[in-house]
Specification:
Layout lengths: L1 H21 L9 H7 L5 E2 L2 E2 L14 H9 L29 E6 L2 E6 L2 E5 L32 E5 L10 H7 L3 E7 L3 H6 L7 E4 L4 E4 L2 E6 L19 E5 L4 E4 L8 H9 L2 E7 L16 H11 L1 E7 L13 H13 L11 E3 L15
Parallel strand pairs: 5-6, 6-7, 7-8, 12-13, 13-14
Antiparallel strand pairs: 1-2, 3-4, 3-15, 4-5, 9-10, 10-11, 11-12
Length: about 375
């Protein structure tokens, strides 16, 4: 029996190692040329990217008991009572001529944005499960997507905040790459895109505070407090970032994933105020208060003040269960704090088309139905 058990365990280990090393989901490995570029960054130390403040991303041995208790704690209503219905959108909405800046939220942190006639995808994780294999994660909360990946219009630019599976999705990239002109990423993430068949010349990698011009738009990679990694040995090997998208008349901020820190205030002082800020709000754990890689809703409200946002939209919620809190709780807690801080929140339905000119009419408490 022990021999049989040993063989079984050995087979499982071998299969796991083969999957990690052979599956394209895990991305690519940096070239010496790429690493030489990283070494010029103030954020790259001893072979890894770092945060501005000390940010533990993995628990110490003494904390393992507390972590196990937190992640196994029974919490009610962590997923909706029924699949969330989304607004269905035709791709003609984004192919017909328009002078308006408009958005569609696909849930979690994924957006399709049209600005100055350019169509931009942000963190397009459009698959069902945010994991390297469907067996390794929970399914999306929604009943489909507002628009199928196959129906997306041609895309001028794709912006990524970091390389985690709920933001950078291999399957989505494979389906859209023939319709995308340019990709904009933090340092190192382009290695994954190249491994997936995207030409190096179509990728622009930026360090924090670097700016680039994309026709009549400006993109700025700004700091975030998070981490990166897709496999067993590549933690912190690519940079993570928040982003600013500017036209001559519009100023948009996207937080990516981030714990709270002083960078929000610095961004607000240098680039604010913003017409709208898409701010992380979800996938925290109240039983792990020392984890600084995600924000609690109250911190999201403070970050919105720091960046000087006229409108704030909570993202990183309502699509996946990636931590142990009731699924509605992020927006409900944020609403309370926003009222205290006199912050104007934006809560559109998933799939709802909303424009920068009509934000006051773009909110509802749609989650209360579930």
């Amino acid at each position: 029996m022990l021999l049989t058990l040993g063989i079984f365990v050995g087979v499982i280990i071998i299969m796991g190692l083969l999957f990690v090393n052979l599956s394209p989901q895990f991305g690519g490995k940096h070239t010496d040329e790429a690493i030489a570029r990283f070494e010029t960054s103030q954020n790259f130390k001893k072979g890894k990217f770092t945060n501005q403040s000390f940010t533990p991303t993995f628990p110490g041995f003494s904390d393992l008991g507390k972590v196990f208790k937190a992640v196994t704690k029974k919490v009610p209503n962590t997923i909706p009572s029924s699949p969330i219905k989304v607004e269905k959108v035709s791709n003609q909405e984004f192919t017909k001529p328009s002078n308006e800046t408009k958005f569609i939220w696909f849930g979690h942190s994924a957006f399709l944005l049209e600005i100055q006639g350019k169509r931009i995808l942000i963190d397009p994780m459009l698959s069902d499960v945010p994991a390297p294999h469907p067996w390794l994660g929970g399914k999306r909360f929604t009943d489909g997507l507002p628009m199928s990946v196959e129906d997306l219009p041609s895309i001028d630019a794709v912006i990524f905040s970091h390389d985690h599976y709920d933001h950078l999705d291999y399957e989505t990239i494979q389906k859209i790459k023939k319709r995308v002109k340019k990709y904009f990423t933090p340092l190192g993430l382009g290695t994954h895109l190249q491994a997936w068949g995207i030409d190096k010349d179509d990728i622009v990698e930026l360090d924090w505070w670097e700016e680039t011009q994309f026709e009549d738009l400006k993109f700025v990679a700004t700091p975030a407090r998070h981490f990166s990694g897709r496999g067993l040995s590549d933690s912190m090997k690519t940079l993570w970032a928040s982003w600013i998208i500017q036209s001559e008349t519009e100023n948009i901020y996207f937080s990516g994933d981030s714990g709270y820190d002083t960078h929000f205030k610095k961004i607000g002082e240098k680039y604010g105020p913003f017409d709208i800020a898409f701010m992380e709000c979800g996938q925290y754990n109240d039983d792990l208060p020392d984890s600084p890689i995600h924000m609690y809703p109250e911190q999201t409200a403070q970050a919105a003040l720091d960046v000087k946002a006229q409108y704030t939209m909570p993202i990183h919620w309502a699509s996946f269960k990636l931590n142990n809190h009731p699924w509605k709780e992020p927006v409900e807690r944020l609403i309370k704090k926003a009222e205290e801080f006199n912050i104007t929140l934006l809560t559109p339905r998933i799939g709802q088309v909303f424009t920068l000119n009509s934000l006051d009419n773009s909110s509802s408490n749609w989650w209360e139905k579930y």
